[in-house]
Amino acid sequence: MAKVKNCLIVVDIQNDFCPDGALAIMEGDKIIPVVNALAGKFDKVVATQDWHPPGHVSFAATHKKKPYDIITIDEIQQVLWPVHCVQGSFGADFHKDLDLREVDLIIRKGNDLNIDSYSAFMENDKITLTGLHYYLKGLAIRDLYFCGLATDYCVYYSALDARKMGFNVGVILDACRGVDVPAGNIATVIQTMKERGIRIMNRDEASSLTRL
């Protein structure tokens, strides 16, 4: 059996993050053909899925606040979002055009009522693990490539955690879209990722599977 070397991690391409969704990201659906074309080029593919219970701590409505207000809960800064990706809802489903046939594993995150989870690896308390890194290390995967939604939140925090855990990391920027909240956030996180040793690339570079 050939050794598994790399993994594409497809972040949160769900109805609520696409146009007409509860937390729509501009052109969020435009990346889907790019992601579908990339998926078959990797040894493994993991998809993440925001999966919040009703009344989740990240919802502005839970706190009777306005969306995008920022509060502190148990010393964790929390951006408050519109109600989105509620477990079992249409909004939480993967977009119908996303081809899941290449996906080997689905990681659901944000399903603890009292803790939000941007990263595919770790909830926002920076203690609770999703278990994804055990799966990847068990397969001796070292090279991770990220795409999906949103560039400046779930993709960003997932990439940072992957780097901290010792993986080689690339972000396929033209296979991502961001919310840019606050304004300028996308540019800020791209610069931070570069400073942390994360390679920013495009789909053609990723397709060539140049070792990071």
Number of H/I helices:
5
**Largest sheet at a glance?**
6 strands, parallel
Structural class from helices and strands? alpha/beta
How far is the N terminus from the C terminus?
Answer: 23 Å
Helix content: 10-25%
Radius of gyration: 16 Å
- Contiguous runs where pLDDT drops below 50 for at least 5 residues: none
Strand order of the largest sheet: 5-2-1-6-7-8
Sum up the overall morphology in one term. Answer: globular
Order of helices and strands: EHEEEEHEHEHEH
Overall residue-averaged pLDDT value: 94
Provide the β-strand percentage band.
15-25%
Count of strand segments = 8
Task: Identify the notable features of this structure and list them briefly.
alpha/beta; six-stranded parallel β-sheet; 5 helices; globular; two-stranded antiparallel sheet
SSE layout and pairing:
Layout: E1 6-11, H1 32-39, E2 44-50, E3 70-73, E4 76-79, E5 105-109, H2 132-138, E6 143-149, H3 151-164, E7 168-177, H4 185-195, E8 199-201, H5 203-208
Parallel strand pairs: 1-2, 1-6, 2-5, 6-7, 7-8
Antiparallel strand pairs: 3-4
Helix pairs in contact: 3-4
Characterize the structure shown:
With 212 residues, this protein is of the alpha/beta class. It contains five helices and eight strands. The strands form two sheets. Strands 5-2-1-6-7-8 form a six-stranded parallel beta sheet, sandwiched between helices. The chain has a two-stranded antiparallel ribbon with strand order 3-4. Strand 7, helix 4 and strand 8 form a beta-alpha-beta unit. The radius of gyration is 16 Å and the shape is globular. The model has no long low-confidence stretch (mean pLDDT 94).
